[in-house]
Amino acid sequence: MFRFANIEYLWLLLLVPVLIIAHIIYTHYKRKQLLEIGDADLIRELIPNASTVRPHVKFGLAMLALVLIVLAAARPQYGTKEETIKRQGIEMMVALDISNSMLAEDVAPSRLEKSKQMLSSMINKFTNDKVGMVVFAGTAFTQLPITCDYISAKTFLQSTDPSLIPAQGTAIGKAIETSLMSFGAEESEASRVIILITDGENHDDDAVGAARKAAEKGIKVMVVGLGKPDGSPIPVQPGSNNFMKDRQGNVVLSRLNEDMCRQIAQAGNGIYVRADNSNSAVRALEKEIDKLATAELETTVYTEFNEQFQSFALIALLLLVIEFFIFSRKNKRLSRINIFEN
Asked: What is the torsion angle, in degrees rounded to the nearest 10, for the CA atoms of residue 114, residue 223, residue 282 and residue 228?
C-alpha cells in the first residue's frame, strides 16, 4: 500500500504552474526588450555567446527538482507488512440522500451539511466498528465499501454532494438494496444496521419492501428524517436567495415525508428519529446502536511502512547539481562541444 505521511505538503505543487507562467511572461518580456534595441540578427552578432535554449533547460531542471523536493517532503511510504486485526464491533452501512432537496436550509446549515455533521460526530466515536457509505438520489451506488478506515470514511463523507448523481429523485429502495449488497455474501455474527438519512420526498421505488427484506436478513434499518413537514425552498446555490422553481415559475417547496420514514423504519425493525438543530438525533442513534450485539470482526491493515523520500531527494539534488553547472551563456572553452543549440 502506497501513501503520503504528510499529504498536506502536496499543496505546494500548485507553485509549479504559477512559476511556469511567470517564467514564460519574463522570457517574453526580455525578448521584447531586445527587439526594441535593434534587429535580431544584429543583436545575435553583438552577443554571440548568448543561448536561447540553456535558460529554459535550467528552468526545467529546477522545476523538476522542486516537484521531487515537494514529494520528498510529503514523505512517500510503502506498506510492507499486512496484519489481520480482530476487533469487537458491529457493521454499519450509511445510506445518504444527496438529492437536490437535501440542500434545503430548514435545518442549519442545510439538510445535507447537517447529515455530514451527524455522521462525522458518530465516526469520531467509533473504535472497533466497520462502516461503509451508499449515496443515492435517482439511483444509488456504494461510495465507500465497508471498512475500519475511519479517516477515509470522513474524507469520502466531506466530498459528498448532489453533483455525484446527476439523475434526480429519491430511490430509497435502491439505496437499501445497495447497502445490503455492500455487506457482502458472507454471514456475520456481528449486528448489522443500515442508517438511512433522507427527507423521504418523492420516493421512486418500494422502499418499505426493501426495508422488510433487510429485516428478514436480520439487518435493522434506522431512519433519520431531515427537514420540516411544512416545507422549505431549495437554494440554487448554498446560502443564496435564488431558489429552484417549477415549470410554471413557482418556488419549489421540499417537505419532510415523516409518514414514509416511519413506515420504512417499522418495516426494517428499526427506529425513526427526526434531526433538528440539536444533537438529539445522534444521541438517539447511538443509544440504539449500543444495544446491538457486537462480534469479532477481522480487518487487514498495513502495520509497517518504509520511507521512500530518500530516492526523490537524491534525484532532486542531482538535478540541482546539473542545473548549477549549466551556464546561461555558452562557455568559450566548450563552444566546440555543441550540446545545446542557439
From this structure: 50
CB of 102 closer than 8 Å to CB of 115: yes
pTM score: 0.63
Q: Which residues contact 138 (CB under 8 A, 6 or more apart)?
A: 99, 165, 167, 168, 169, 170, 171, 204
Pick the CATH number of 91-293 from 3.40.50.720, 3.40.30.10, 3.40.50.410, 3.40.50.300: 3.40.50.410
For 50, which DSSP code? B
Residue 182 is given by DSSP the state H
Task: Give DSSP secondary structure letters for 312-332.
Answer: HHHHHHHHHHHHHTS-SB--G
| Angle, in degrees to the nearest 10, between helices 258-267 and 207-216 | 20
What grid cell was written down for 126? 467509533
SS3 state at 212: helix
Bridge pairing between strands 76-89 and 295-307: antiparallel
pLDDT tens figures, 251-273? 989 999 999 999 999 999 999 99
State how far the alpha carbon of 324 is from the alpha carbons of 54, 69, 317, in Å: 12, 17, 11
Q: What gap in Å lies between CA 67 and CA 299, rounded to an integer?
A: 35
The residue extents of the domains of the chain are 2-79+304-334, 91-293
For residue 11, the 8-state DSSP code is G
**Average pLDDT score over residue span 159-164:** 91
DSSP secondary structure letter of residue 161: -
